[in-house]
Amino acid sequence: MAAMMNDDVNAGRENIIKGLCIYLNEDPADLVQEYTDVTEANTVSAIETTTVGIYVVKDTPSSDYSDLGIILEGVVVLQDIENGSYGIGAN
Question: Which pLDDT score is estimated for 88?
Fold first, then answer.
C-alpha cells in the first residue's frame, strides 16, 4: 500500500512539472537537458535560454551526474540536488 502511495506522489510531481512547462509555453520533451563534457560557458548560455527545465551535468555519458538542478526563467533556482527523484519528480 505504501508503495502505491509513493508512486502516486511521484506521478503527481511529474505531472505538476510537466504542466508548468506547458503553462509557460515550453515543450515538455525538453524538460530534462543533459550536458556532457562541455565548458561552463556553453552550459550557462544554454541555461539562460531555458524557461523551465531540469539540467543534468555529467563528466562522461556513462558516469553518474556531477550536478543536477532546476531552471526557472533562465535562472538556476536549485542546484547540486543529491537525489535525482526530488529534481525530476519520479523514481
Answer: 53
